[in-house]
Each structure stands twice: as structure tokens, then as C-alpha cells.
Design a protein that fits this description.
Number of helices: 13
Distance between the termini: 51 Å
CATH class of the largest domain: Mainly Alpha
Strand content: 15-25%
Strand order of the largest sheet: 8-9-10-11-19-16-15-14
Radius of gyration: 25 Å
Helix content: 25-40%
Largest sheet: 8 strands, antiparallel
Protein name: DUF2264 domain-containing protein
Organism: Phytobacter massiliensis
InterPro entries: DUF2264_C, DUF2264_N, UCP014753
Shape: elongated
Pfam family, one: DUF2264_C
Structural class: alpha+beta
CATH topology of the largest domain: Glycosyltransferase
Length: 609
């Protein structure tokens, strides 16, 4: 597994090897970190908060890896420059001063890392600080106590700062903690699930933020706040039983939602589980989840020639990034190294790594409006979903939240333009056009219902066009049924999963199969009337988040006159061609019900209309 061109392989099976992987990343950063500075520059791209704040962001995010390592008792010479930067950055008389914060300020986000450091290291973390430097640090961080912030996971940043103050012997405010917890309680959904603010998505921020910070709080402040700590731990335990389904056997996690450039923060939750000793899964299982994930990532081309984490997902890709992604933003990935706060002799590190537990069949998660399905060996995981949407409308928000299905192996494609189907990211979408080559798909849902055997949604791409959609897991296949009610003539395109560029093959007259280097993708039309024509489209390079090459999407297309039309299809993909289930599910439309049956099985899924 190579972290960058020319870097030595790190097998990642022991604590010392995990430390070596972290140190390789920190040493690469150190070469970009001039002495006597309170930040560093990692690139020339820009986020909405400007270059100076981005410089302190990158520096602060490195501390998510450094602080746990220091907390375990290890000496890390690189850390001296960071503490010097902290003194400069919080000194109003210094030219490197990080400045006064305003409402919704990015610097409030980065304060959380320093709060964690104070909480982990306690008074020894301030051993090299003069009284004035301590006062500067406290005053600068304390700006967050009553700061105006998004009503979201940001509330935890203030809690971590106050927790750090308390444990490091600095003045702290219990009321600030209570107020922030009260705000977040308003968007607790039940069964371990939050939304990231009122009406906001249920994506990786629930794992890498809410439960990650909650387990830190419960572990470091449990004796003083036992009731809340018990609640946070129980919620995380419930969440873990769902969240493990997001992991595939090879270490991949399901790409979904925003902030995917934080990469291995996807499993930071499991590192917090190890740190907190949360009951539910054994140390060996948790260790395997984290280490396989890190091995998978370190096998991807995610570092530049200097060993710096790039913006993107499985390769450098600015096109899929959000407005708030600066060159230093990807280093939130280092949150996964919280487990390094546990010393070598801890039971977690002594445990034998265990494979992913057997997760057969499907997992219905009503609070997240998702159904997750594992293949027999969990080599491939797909997710059906409806109803989530990021209200801030960041770039490619539809691609990240509103597709019908997502895949651990094939991810998804992003829009590369407004005109033409090859640019429109039609994978796992039903796209509609008025014949002008501009396509609209599902965005906001007017209605969503999650059942044990399907997800229903209703959406309207135009005021006089309404679509009712049923997503039905059917083993390795999933079936999609749409009732299209339109007052205008439309052309339609519906895509399967995107694989690397390859020619398509017809499956009879109604199906399309693409066998590519990285797997096989199929779509088969089951429409009761107006059969759709199978075809494929090749998307531009850098449109898939999983690979840089052009992608091929198998699809179905048909034109519809005004009126009511029923569309149905079966979709499947798998990284292993031999694991493809060739027999297509059966679909029947009756007067008052939809009937779906997997081939060679007796059980029929019946959905009343």
C-alpha cells in the first residue's frame, strides 16, 4: 500500500505501523510548514473563507492526529512547531495572530482540535505556556462560547473547547455546555440517529461528528456528567448496529453525502468506539473495520508528489468539492487516529483483527431513509435512499444525496455540465427532458415513506410533472418502479451504476450490460407498457468520484406523451463478474398493487397502491 509515489509500503497491522502511517503524513506537512509561522499553505485553490484562515485550518486539522499520539505518552518532535504556532496564533500582538472571529466563522470549526488537545493532555499540554500565553489561548478559544454558529454539529465545537478548559485547569462555563447540548437535542431522531440540524441530512456528519464528539465527551467527562455520558454511549451503541452496514468487507465505505474529501474520517466513529471502550462489537471487529479502511485508502492515489492529501475522493478531483474545502480541509481525515491515544498495551491493540461480521440480507434504517444491502460475501454494498437533501445547495448536491442508489464499489458520478446526457450524471437517476437536451431529475421529495421492503417517494421536476417512485431491494438486484404523471411531452433516461469505460452488450431487447475492468453493471427494463430502449453513455473523465477515467453507464431511454405512464426496471452491479445474478426479477402491475419477485424464489413482494 503506497501513500504516494516513491513512499515505502506500510502494511498497517499493528499500532507502530499506524503511527508510521500518521507520521509519514505529518512529515510531509512539516516540509510545508516554515518555522516561526502560525499556519501553512498547501495549495492555491480557495474556499469561501480565504487563504489566511485556510492556513490555520490546515495546521489545526493536523492536530487531530498529533494530540492522540501525544496523549499516549509518545514524544513527537514535530509537535513543537505546532505549539509555537498556537502561541503566535492566539497572541493579539503577534503578526501571526489568527484574529477575532465573527458569526459562522470557519475558525470556530478549527477550535475543536485545540479543545480536544487540552482535554486529552490536560495541564501538561500547557506546560510550556507562560501565564500570558495561557491567558491569550483561553481568551481566543473562549470566543466560541457564545458565538453565532449554524444550528448543527458545530455546537459540539463549543462543548469540546469548554471540556478542554475544564480538564486543563482553565476557567470554563458549564452553562455554555448545557446550552449547546440543548440545541442538539432538538434534532435527535431516535434509535441513535440525529440529523445535522433541523431538517438537515443524515450523512457522515452523524458518525464523524455527533457520535465521535459525543463519545469523547462521555469518556473524558463521564464521572462528572454520568447521566448524559450514559445517554451518549447508548445512542452510539444503537447507531453502531446500523453504521456497520456502511462498510464493505474490503474496507470500502459507502460514498454518500457531502464532505467526502475528508476520506478516512468515514470510520472515525469506530476509532471513537475503540477510545471509549463502547460495548457492542469486539475490539477485533472494530480494529478490522478501521485498519481495512485505512489500507484501502492508502492504496488509492490520494496524495500528491509531496505526500500531501489532495482535494477529491478516490483521486484528486476539485469538481466534486464543496465551497468550504480549502487545500488543508482533507486533514480532518486524521480524526481516525484518535485510537492512538490508547497505548500499545491496551486490549484494543493486543486484540487480533477480525473480519467484517456476516451481514446478510438488508438493513432498513427509517431515520436515515435508507435501505442497505450486502452481497453474500459483503464484497459489494448498495444503498437505496430517498428524501435527503443538503439545503445549502453545495456543488453537485443532487449527485451526493438524491440518486436512487449508491454503491461501495462504484460510488456515483457528478454533473460536468448542464447540457447533454453524457454530462448529466444519469447513473442511478431517472432524468427527464422536454426534448432540448437539458435534463431534470429528483431533487426535493414531497413525500417519503420507508417500509420493511421498499422506499416510496413522490417528487415533481416541473409543476405539472409528478413522479411516484418505489425502490425495492431484491437480493443483488434492486427494482425501481415509477408512475410518471405529465402534462407535457418528455424524453426519459434512467441509468444503472457507473463503471469504467467499456462497450455495452444487449441483454435481449430490453437490457444493457457493461462488463468493465472494475466490475459489471446491468439495467433491465420491466415496464408493463412502452418498453424502453437499452443503451449506454460514456461520461467525461473525472465525473466518477471513484476513478479518473471516463465512465460508462448502462441506461434505458424512451419518449412519453402527456398522460400517466408506468416505468419499471431491475438494476444490479458487482465488482466480481462471477457474482452477478443473471436471472432478472419479475414485475407485475395489478389494479391496486405492485408485485416483485426474485427469479427462482417463491416469495413475492406485494406493495399496495
Amino acid at each position: 500500500m503506497h501513500m504516494a509515489a516513491g513512499k515505502k509500503s506500510i502494511p498497517l497491522s499493528s499500532r507502530s505501523e499506524v503511527v508510521a502511517a500518521l507520521m509519514a503524513m505529518l512529515e510531509a506537512l512539516d516540509k510545508q510548514f516554515p518555522p516561526g509561522q502560525s499556519g501553512f499553505t498547501l495549495g492555491d485553490t480557495c474556499a469561501h473563507y480565504g487563504a489566511k484562515i485556510a492556513e490555520m485550518e490546515g495546521l489545526s486539522r493536523a492536530m487531530w492526529g498529533l494530540f492522540p499520539l501525544l496523549a499516549s505518552g509518545e514524544t513527537v518532535p514535530l509537535s513543537e512547531k505546532y505549539f509555537a504556532a498556537l502561541k503566535m496564533g492566539t497572541d493579539p500582538q503577534s503578526p501571526g495572530y489568527w484574529g477575532e472571529t465573527g458569526p459562522y466563522d470557519q475558525r470556530l470549526v478549527e477550535m475543536a482540535a485545540w479543545g480536544l488537545g487540552l482535554a486529552l493532555l490536560q495541564e501538561k499540554g500547557l506546560a510550556g505556556f507562560s501565564p500570558r500565553e495561557r491567558d491569550n489561548l483561553h481568551r481566543w478559544l473562549n470566543q466560541i462560547s457564545d458565538a453565532q454558529m449554524p444550528d448543527s454539529n458545530w455546537n459540539y465545537f463549543a462543548i469540546l473547547v469548554q471540556l478542554g478548559f475544564k480538564r486543563a485547569g482553565l476557567p470554563w462555563d458549564q452553562q455554555a455546555i448545557e446550552q449547546r447540548f440543548a440545541l442538539m437535542e432538538a434534532y435527535y431522531l431516535g434509535d441513535g440517529w440525529y440529523s445535522d440540524g433541523p431538517g438537515r441530512p443524515k450523512d457522515y456528519y452523524i458518525s464523524m461528528a455527533f457520535h465521535f464528539y459525543g463519545l469523547i465527551y462521555a469518556t473524558l467527562n463521564g464521572e462528572d456528567d454520568p447521566e448524559r455520558a450514559a445517554t451518549l454511549r447508548e445512542r452510539s451503541r444503537q447507531f453502531a448496529a446500523d453504521f456497520i452496514w456502511m462498510s464493505a468487507a474490503g474496507g470500502e465505505s459507502m460514498p454518500f453525502g457531502r464532505s467526502l474529501t475528508y476520506r478516512f474520517a468515514m470510520v472515525a466513529f469506530w476509532s471513537a468506539v475503540a477510545f471509549s471502550g463502547l460495548e457492542g462489537f469486539s475490539h477485533g471487529v472494530v480494529k478490522g473495520l478501521i485498519l481495512r479502511h485505512l489500507r484501502w485508502w492508502l492504496g488509492q492515489p490520494i496524495f500528491d508528489r509531496d505526500g500531501i492529501l489532495t482535494l477529491g475522493f478516490a483521486y484528486p478531483n476539485l469538481a466534486m468539492c464543496e465551497d468550504y474545502n480549502s487545500p488543508g480541509s482533507p486533514y480532518w481525515a486524521l480524526k481516525v487516529f484518535l485510537m492512538l491515544a490508547l497505548p500499545e498495551e491496551h486490549d484494543f491493540w493486543r486484540a487480533k483483527e477480525q473480519p467484517l461480521p456476516e451481514l446478510s440480507g438488508k438493513r432498513v434504517i427509517p431515520h436515515a431513509q435508507q435501505i442497505l444491502v450486502h452481497s453474500k460475501t459483503s464484497r459489494h454494498v448498495y444503498m437505496l435512499t430517498s428524501g435527503q437533501l443538503e439545503l445549502n445547495n453545495y456543488v453537485n448536491t443532487e449527485a451526493k444525496y438524491t440518486k436512487f442508489a449508491y454503491s461501495s464499489a462504484f460510488g456515483f458520478t457528478i454533473e460536468r455540465g448542464r447540457y447533454g446526457i453524457k454530462h448529466a450524471a444519469c447513473d442511478s437517476m431517472l432524468l427527464l427532458s422536454e426534448g432540448d437536451n437539458y435534463y431534470r431529475g429528483r431533487r426535493e421529495c414531497e413525500q417519503v415513506e420507508v417500509r420493511d421492503d421498499h422506499i416510496f417517494s413522490r417528487w415533481s421536476p416541473w409543476q405539472d410533472v409528478h413522479v411516484s417512485t418505489w425502490l425495492i431491494p431484491c437480493g443483488d438486484w434492486h427494482v425501481r418502479v415509477h408512475r410518471l404523471e405529465t402534462a407535457r411531452a418528455l424524453e426519459s433516461v434512467e441509468g444503472g451504476f457507473a463503471v469504467k469505460k467499456a462497450p455495452h452488450q444487449s441483454i435481449g431487447t430490453r437490457g444493457c450490460r457493461v462488463a468493465a475492468e472494475n466490475g459489471v453493471s446491468l439495467i433491465y427494463d420491466l415496464s408493463p407498457t412502452h418498453p424502453r430502449q437499452p443503451e449506454s453513455v460514456v461520461t467525461p473523465p473525472n465525473s466518477s468520484i471513484m476513478f479518473a477515467e471516463c465512465a460508462t453507464i448502462p441506461l434505458l431511454q424512451q419518449a412519453f406523451a402527456p398522460g400517466t405512464h408506468w416505468l419499471a426496471c431491475a438494476v444490479q452491479a458487482n465488482p466480481d463478474a462471477q457474482d452477478i445474478t443473471e436471472a432478472v426479477p419479475e414485475f407485475r402491475l395489478e389494479d391496486d398493487r405492485l408485485c416483485v419477485k426474485a427469479a427462482n424464489e417463491n416469495n413475492t413482494i406485494t406493495i399496495m397502491l
